[in-house]
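Contributing new records

If you add data, match the layout below exactly. Sequence lines come first and carry their own label; structure lines follow with theirs. Keep one chain per record. Anything else will be rejected by the validation script.
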Amino acid sequence: MSARYSACLAGMILAGGMLLGGCGGNRPAPVVEPQTDEFYQVARPIMTSQESRIYRNLASPQLRKRFIEYFWEIRDPNPLTEDNEFRMEMLRRFEHVQRYFQEGQRPGWRTDRGRFFMILGPPDEVDRNVQTTDPRLQGRVIDWYYGFSGATGTTYSGGGFRLRFVDERGFGIFRMDERYMPLRVMDILEELKFNMIVKRGQDSPFPEAIDFQVDFNPAAGEVTVSFGPKRVAFERREDRILVHLHVAVMVINEKEKIDKFTRDWKEEFNAEAVLKEDFRFNIPVAVRLDPGKSTLDVVVTDLMSGRKSRRMTSVKAGKR
């Protein structure tokens, strides 16, 4: 597990603790019923476990509505357009898995094939007639290939991988066979739970994130996001460069209040200055924090490349 993902989990755990009132005591039962909550069914495969936990325990429809809005916003590949292409793609995938992957009484979104399809999208190749000598298997074996080149399943390109689903008893209930899944696929799945939809033809299923820092200035009421030019896309204009980014900050406080603040940031810089080793971009975002401890969930979107980066941190604000 990468250090960055571990940090993200730690932040989510902290946020979950705030919203749930701690890890022990008289915690109320989850108020969201997964079987009837349409958003949860669509989003669950791409939620982190902590996002799922937080959402299921939000106490009011108003809080859930704000969570849903922010959940889709931070995954929007282009926040400045009217449509959220990520959400639209997830709804299409959900419709597909519900139609084709239902197994017995289990809806498609809860099956192994449905979960992987929701995260990874359609495979590049499918082999529905895999031959096996395993005497324990009474049903079919299906292989899905991602990042695959060839027709026999013997060669891979660009870090491709295979997923195998087996119907052990012949009842049409397929489970994913972990013996055939490389360990690195788990890292890819977790990364894709946050990043934008995979685009075929890329060298990597997801681009490297921008390594940014978050600083809170309580006196100015600002959160400043700072980072170097590495991994930032830009447009060259003679001796100038143009960068265009979007910053979203979700604030979760100790009283289950959720606020959201955003900034669209488009600036030109001298090209020589940007190339200096110590150069950093600094983007201030005006925020309002209630007194006490809050968690900041900060997402930076590079609008020229679609690359998204996320960092979570806790801050404390005094009385105003």
